[in-house]
Design a protein that fits this description.
4-stranded antiparallel sheet, 7-stranded mixed sheet, mainly beta, single chain
């Protein structure tokens, strides 16, 4: 059974930093496309950052230069380092992973596995 468990969310002031973690079990993150999404109240879910099987990364324009996605293959864990946080970054953050080792790695790809989410709140 695949489980993705996020942690690391919390409340910070604008300009602060948080690091989100997504621990995978029953799933090998090393050779999968994985991503972070977020959803704010009243808004649609949006892609934040993704990392492909080769380690290539992609970011939403709104977080470029501030967020960094990475994987620790030994720990089977996905991370999202968030710096210079802004109030508009406030949202529930979800990690997601593709079931297939093949195929495209984009925001529009099918992500079969999702974590339960971790709340990030940034105050001004």
């Amino acid at each position: 059974q695949v489980q993705l468990v996020e942690s690391g969310g919390g409340s910070v002031q604008a300009g602060g930093s948080l690091r989100l973690s997504c621990a995978a079990s029953g799933y090998t993150s090393r050779d999968r496309c994985m991503a972070w999404f977020r959803q704010a109240p009243g808004k649609e879910r949006e892609g934040v950052a993704l990392i492909n099987t080769g380690g290539g990364t992609s970011y939403a324009d709104s977080v470029k230069g501030r967020f960094t996605i990475s994987k620790d293959n030994a720990k089977n864990t996905l991370y999202l380092q968030m710096n210079s946080l802004k109030p508009e970054d406030t949202a529930m953050y979800y990690c997601a992973g593709r079931a297939s080792r093949f195929g495209s790695c984009t925001w529009a790809s099918t992500y079969s596995y999702w974590g339960q989410g971790t709340q990030v709140t940034v105050s001004s």
